[in-house]
Amino acid sequence: MTVRHSLLAVGAVLVLGMAVFLLREVGRTPSAAQADRSPSPTPPPTPPPAVTIKPPPTEPPTRATIPQSQVQ
């Protein structure tokens, strides 16, 4: 075998190795995602109802009165 053939063989082995590795990773990902889930799928919990904050009732502004005992 010449140098060129040996380099082609090494490159082909590397490409095949990467392909096998990627196919294993892609094949393993769904099972890993399913392993995190519980065996019986339950629906997601419903969010609590939104809390509405009511503004305080508007009252006409009142003037502060100073007691006559403090007036000089």
Overview of this protein structure:
The protein is an all-alpha fold and 72 residues long. The chain has a domain at 1-26. Helix content is 47%, strand content 0%. The longest helix is centred in the first third of the chain and has 34 residues, at 3-36. The mean pLDDT is 75.
What topology does this entry show?
Layout: H1 3-36
What class, by secondary structure content?
mainly alpha
- SSE pattern, N- to C-terminal: H
Number of strands: 0
Mean pLDDT: 75
Content of β-strand:
under 5%
Distance N to C terminus: 116 Å
Tell me, briefly, the overall form. rod-shaped
**Helix residue percentage:** 40-55%
Number of helices: 1
Radius of gyration: 38 Å
Stretches where pLDDT is under 50 for at least 5 consecutive residues are none
Main sheet record: none
In short:
By secondary structure, the chain is an all-alpha fold.
Which key features would you list for this structure?
mainly alpha, 72 residues, 1 helix, rod-shaped
